[in-house]
Amino acid sequence: MLPCSLLLALACSPDDKLSEQTEETTSSIVEDSDTTSPPVTDSEAPDSGDDTGTSGSETGGDDTGGGDTSDDTEAPELCPESASLAIASVAVTGTPSALARHLEVSLSEDAALGVACTRDDHPDELLYWESESADEHDLDLFGLAPSSDYRCQIAPLCPTMSGPPEEVTFQTEPPPSGLPGVTITQHPTLTSSGAPMVVMNAAPCDGGGAHYLVMYDLNGEVRWFHRLSGTFSTDVVVQYLGDGVVVWGGGFTPNGAPRTIDLFGAEIDRAAWPGSSNVTFNHEARMLEDGRLLGFDYNTNTDGDRSWQGYQIFVTEPGTNKLDWTWSSQVGVDAELFPPGSEEIYDIYHGNWADILTRKDGTERAYVSMCYLSWIVAIDVDSSELLWRFGLNGDFALVNADGSPAADEDWPDCQHGIEVDDDTLLVYDNGRQRGASRVSTYTLDEAAMTATRTWSWTEEGWVNPWLGDADFLPDDRVFLTQANPTCFEGLEDIGNHLTEVDMATGEVVWRATIDDPDYLTYRSERADTCDVMPHVQWCSDVRERWEAAAGLFSL
Length: 555
Hints:
Blueprint: E1 2-3, E2 28-29, E3 78-79, E4 87-94, E5 101-119, E6 126-141, E7 149-158, E8 166-171, E9 182-186, E10 197-204, E11 212-217, E12 222-227, E13 236-242, E14 245-250, E15 259-262, E16 267-270, E17 285-287, E18 293-302, E19 307-316, E20 323-328, H1 330-334, E21 351-358, E22 364-370, E23 375-380, E24 386-390, E25 397-399, E26 415-421, E27 424-429, E28 438-445, E29 450-457, E30 469-473, E31 477-482, E32 497-502, E33 508-514, E34 519-520, E35 524-527, H2 540-549
Parallel strand pairs: 2-4, 25-29
Antiparallel strand pairs: 1-3, 4-5, 5-6, 5-7, 7-8, 9-33, 10-11, 10-34, 10-35, 11-12, 13-14, 14-15, 15-16, 17-18, 18-19, 19-20, 21-22, 22-23, 23-24, 26-27, 27-28, 28-29, 30-31, 31-32, 32-33
C-alpha cells in the first residue's frame, strides 16, 4: 500500500470510493496519431507559440505543483487497493509546444494518478507528475528534452489498482536549427546551487535570424523555447514566474510591451494603455511583487534650451489598460541632480535596468541603473522623490572596511544587471572604460552616506563592455550572465557565458557557454520550474513524492 502522507492534495482515505463498486473495465491504450510529429524543417520548426497570443490547450484536473511533505513520525496512513479500479483509456497528443505532450487518462472510478517518464538515451532521467483524484485526468507534460524517445507509465495512486501500470511511448522533435546549444563546464567537487533551469533570451547578434526565449537545464539541454514573432534588438528580458507563467518584454520595439504568457506561448496579459502602441519598450520587463507589470522606455528630456534622450519607468495594473505609476529622468534634471545632455551627448544616461522593491521598513523604492553615468539611483515611490545617486560623483562616499577612503577605481564603471537586497547592492560592473569586467557587492549606510565594497570577483580575459546580469543564488553563490556582442569588432573571441561563482572561494562552480558565436544573450536567470517540469534529479519535493510512489511503477 502507498503512504498517503507523502501525497499532497491526493484523495487518500481508507474508505475513499470503496463503497462505490463499479464494473471492472478492460483498459485500452489509445495513442493519438499525432503523438509523434514528423521531422521538422527550418521553416516549419515546431514552436511553443508566438507572441501574437496563439491559444494553447487548457488543462484540467492535474496537480503538477510541489507537495506538502509530512514530518509526522506516526505510521503513515496507507492507500487501499480497489479491485474495481482500472485504466479505461490513455491518449497522448502533441501540443503547441514542441517539448511537451498532452496526456488524457480515463479511469473506471475516481483516483489520484501518477505519471512517470524516462528517456531511452538517458535512463537516469525521470520526470514524475501527480494529478488529484478524478476519473478523467488531463496533464501537460512539460520539461521534455528534444530528439528523445520517452517511455511513460501511468498508475492510480489512491486508491491503487491490482494490475500493472499502463505504458505509452512517444518521441520528441529536434530543436529548431537556429536555436543555439550550450556547452557545460562543471567543477570537479563543488555542485551547483539553486534552481534547476536557466531562462534567457537567445538573440542573433547581427539582428537577423530568429529570436528565442529558452530554458536550458543544468546539463545544457533545451527544455522549453518560444520563438518571438517580429524583429527585436538584443535587450529582451525574460523571467519564469512559476505556475507555468513567463514574463518577457523589451527589444526596442512597440511589439516588446511587457507581457505574461503561458508555456504554450499564449498571452495572458500585457502592459497597454492609450498611446502605448508608440512606445519603444526596451531593457526591462518584470512582474512586481504585487502582480503589476514594470517596463522601461526612452523619452525626451529638456532644460528649456536643449533636448536629449532620457528614460521613463512605467508600472501598469493588469487588466486595467492604464498607467499606475511612472517616473522620468526629467525629475532628476528639474532637481538639478542629473547632468543635462545635448545633441552631441544625446544618450547621456542610458538607463538599462529597473525594479521596484519593498524594503524591510515597509517603504517602496524604485531603482534604476544608468550605465553612461555609472550611477544607480533610488526613488521613493510614494513621493517620486529622488533619494540618492550611487556612483562616482554621486551622493555616497566610498570607504574601505576600516572607514578610510577607497580608490575611485572601486566604483562601478558602467553597469547592467543589478540586484538589490535592502542595503546591499550586487552590481554587474562592465568596466567599459577600465577595459575589464567584474562583479561586486556594496553595503550602503544611508545614515552616514557611505558605501563599502564588500566583495568582488573577476577572471582573466573577462571583458564585457555591454550587456550582462548578476543574481544572488543560495549558499553564497552568484550567477552571472557574461553577455557579449560577439559580432562587434574586437569581441569575436570572448563568447557568451552563464557562470555560477562561489563567493567564498572564487571558484567557478558551473558554466554554460553558448556554442553559436552568432548568438548572444542579454540577461539570464536561474528558474525554479519544478512546479511544471518535475525532474526527480533536481527537485527534492518531487523526488520525495516519487520515492513514496515508486513501488507502483516498474521503470
